[in-house]
Amino acid sequence: MDNEMSSKKEKTKAKNVIKMMTRIYKETSEHKKWAIARWFGGLASGTISVFDFYFIGSALDVALSKEYERLLSFIYALIAIFLIRILLQFTNPLIDSQYELRSYKTLSLNAYNKIDKLEMGYYENVHSADTISTLIDDIEKIKSFMGDCIAGLLSWNPITLILSTIILCNINWKLTVFSLIVVPIVMFVLNKVSKPLKETNNNIQEYTAVLNSYLRDFIEGNDIYKAFNMNKSHTAKFEETCQNIANESYKSSLVMTKNRALQIMMMIIPQGICMFASMYFISRNELTIGQYVIFSNMLWPLIHTIRSTGQAWTEMIGHSGTAERYFKFLSCKEERTDGEDYGTNDSDIIVEFKNVSFSYHNDITLLKDVSFKLNKNSRLALCGVSGSGKSTIFKLICGYYENFTGEIKIFGHDIRTWNLAALRKYMTCVTQDVFLFDDSIVNNIKMGNLNATDEMIEDASKKAYIDQFIKDVGERGAKISGGQRQRIAVARALLKDAPLIMLDEPTSALDTKAEFYVQQSIENLKQGRSVLIIAHRLSTIIDSDLIVLLEEGIISEQGTHNQLISYNGRYSELYKRQLVTQEVQNG
Fold it and tell me: What's the pLDDT tens digit per position in 320-331?
């Protein structure tokens, strides 16, 4: 029963490996001419290596028999083989590198393009370091495996095994059996010893991804770690993960050490058997000196090929987990690409929510029966405590999630019928946490419109009050202040010139001076556009055309500032409390 289950597992494992191989080659099918060239190169190299030994041994027998005319033809053949081998030594590596590098580029681009197509939910559930690990480590391993597989397992190895076995059996089948009898036994043991390798390699990859996550968090959140003296807790996690990697690496190293010992046995024992058995067959005139030379020289590469085939298969089993992770990433759900580009000219209502309810998970409701309208060239403010659903509304307007109930219309059309890429052309966001690319300020501003002229960039910079300090910045803008970062974001939004502006209170974390300049730049941004703003400081939204107060995902009050104050409800309470707090802070 156990043997039957083990056999089924091996068959399943083999099917999975073959399935992964097939899928990898389909993924890189545009480079099949290089794969075919590498395959033929491997066949040629394997064939030449076998006949090289055959002609050397045959030439020795001819020389001993003093058949000099035949010897000359063997010499010519050996010279031709020598020249072909030199040519293959030059061309095969070039073809191999071309195939690997082109395949690596295709696999990387496919993964990179996938990033842009993924739903927003992916980024909220998967750490960025896991994705980076797939893009770098996994693809690199797949690339190496592909080149080795084509050159070895699918071309060189089969032709070498077949031709060598035929020639050796033709010379002396008894000697062949005696010399190779130990090989299947060692191969069986090797297979048993190598079984933990796939699981160990997968564990190393997973722990490495976790380590990358810790490193990324530590680098990007270094100021927080320092401020809260988190080095001990972070170091403990880091050390634990490093120890896990070390433990799994030790297991892998132990398996590989056992493998090497067994492989050495598989190489040495047949050679010893061949040497002593050949003496017996030579003494009985069943083997010539030339045939012994052929046999002894051909036996080594034959066993090496058997060993490398088993090793390649083991590595393929180990790397199949890597390929599975890569294809699992490629199979992640994508954002839809259908829908229409309706434009923005035919609607007086920019954003409309009708009884919208939304949950990330079935048991966590973030919005419930939310309804409001943002009219053209008007200003609507969303306010409420953290977790009330304000940012969720922004994400729904951007089309990041569509598993809501109710109806959302953007520029007069159901958001589910919009082409999302087209929809986002007509809106722009300025948030509290401004992301700046590791580039100059000018290029960061130009992200709003890649076709912008220098005059357009200069005009946007002046309106955002940043024309005085445009210069190169460090990684994510580490060399500039928070207020300057916000004004760069405003300039980027001005350059995009979208009719719908969404502001996630970009001044809430700024000092008074910085806030003044950012507010002035935002006023320039608001001119002639429809504005939806998340408000943390209620004093900044008193001129809004409509204020919506959210509490636990439900609209509790809505109206103008004066109307809400007259209701003397929750909004009035929050506004008065903020006024008192502000007076206390001002002394």
Answer: 778 888 888 888
C-alpha–C-alpha distance, residues 556 and 351, integer Å = 19
Contact 139, 109 (CB under 8 A): no
Which residues, listed in sequence order, are joined to residue 359 by a DSSP beta bridge? 365
Overall size of the chain counted in residues = 587
How buried is residue 188: exposed, middle or buried, by Cβ count under 10 Å (0-12/13-18/19+)? Answer: exposed
Beta pairing class for 413-414 and 554-559 = unpaired
CA distance 348 to 564: 25
Torsion region of 492: left, alpha or beta (phi above 0 gives left; psi -120 to 50 gives alpha): alpha
Q: What is the pLDDT of residue 550?
A: 93
CB 316 within 8 Å of CB 79: no
Q: Give the angle 327-331-337 at the CA atoms, nearest 5°.
A: 140
What residue ranges of the chain are covered by domains with CATH 1.20.1560.10? 16-330
CB 412 within 8 A of CB 347: yes
CA distance 493 to 472: 20
Phi–psi pair at 182, nearest 5 degrees:
-80, -20
List the structure tokens of 129.
């370091």
pTM of the full structure: 0.67
In DSSP terms, 356 is beta-bridged to 370
Cβ-in-10-Å burial (0-12, 13-18, 19+) of 233 comes to exposed
Contact assessment for residue 357 and residue 370, using Cβ atoms and an 8 Å cutoff: yes
Q: Beta strand pairing status for 530-535 and 500-504?
A: parallel
Q: What are phi and psi of 528, to 5 degrees?
A: 75, 15
Residue labelled with tokens 């001419």: 33
Answer whether 529's CB lies under 8 Å from 377's CB.
Answer: yes
CATH classification code of 349-585: 3.40.50.300
Q: What is the DSSP string of 47-68?
A: HHHHHHHHHHHHHHHHHHTT-H
Q: Are 141 and 319 in contact (CB under 8 A)?
A: yes
Structure tokens at 125: 């559930």
In angstroms, the CA 453 to CA 239 distance is: 51
8-57 pLDDT, tens digit each:
555 556 677 777 778 888 888 888 888 888 888 888 888 888 888 888 88
List the structure tokens of 487: 């004004």
Tokens of 52: 């090289």
Q: Which fold has domain 16-330?
A: ABC transporter transmembrane region fold (1.20.1560)
Contact 440, 472 (CB under 8 A): yes
Residue carrying the six token digits 């030379």? 293
CA distance 431 to 67: 90
Strands across the sheet with 530-535, in order? 427-430, 500-504, 530-535, 379-383, 546-551, 554-559
Domain with CATH 3.40.50.300 in the chain: 349-585
Judge whether 355 and 332 are in contact, CB under 8 Å. no
- How many CA atoms does the CB half-sphere of 55 hold within 13 Å? 19
Give the pLDDT confidence of 343-354 residue by residue, as tens digits.
Answer: 887 778 999 999
Partners of 500 in the β-ladder: 427, 530
Query: Coil, strand or helix: which one is 505?
Result: coil
